[in-house]
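stuck on this:

***
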Amino acid sequence: MARGGKILADVKKTLAGMVKIGVSAQELEEKAVAMIAEAGAEPSFMKVPKYHWATCINVNAGIVHGIPTEELVFREGDLVSIDLGVYYQGFHTDSSLSVAINPTPEMAKFLEVGQLAMKKALAQAVAGNRVWDISQTIGETVKMAGYSPVRALVGHGVGRELHEEPMIPCLAIGDRDKSLLLENGMSLAIEVMYTAGKPDLVQAFDGWTITTRDGKISGLFEETVVVGGGKPRVLTTY
């Protein structure tokens, strides 16, 4: 998984650098496909039934599962979320990030909060903690800044399958002591999904794209991490 995570991190870094005015989501998709193949890996998302792309690209109100089309061309002020997975030697890794084109101060703050929530959540991925601790950290960081953690979507385990147990909500749900205990060596895809408005989401007519119901911007950050005894090992950062 470490090698697959490194491949993913390199692709993610390249795609983030391509987000400029006039560039299309399809161009990011084509670059991702080429880089993943060159590294001797496969796109995880193409193994999802009926999904035919290596990436999910969303803009502004779109939060997940956006199809990377030629028609989706980035414009000034857009917030672009990039999500992709890599399958290498029998294991998946999964990662996402949101970037903006010449963001306003308000949008820059919005993204900084997501990055902070991700950093704090990753620090909770140590043996002896519980999934609840990760979720609580994400939810509190987002809410303290005046934003809404998404309720309908979750992070997840990752490894032999792209989506495995446990589910990792973006806010604390239920009793901590009833939440799954984290053990050394567990591999998790921790996701920070949040909105500038209400957390309610809707599915677009394409059958894939999920957007905010109120049209407010949304953010997405995700890393694959291995739970450690004293310190987590993040596999997908660059």
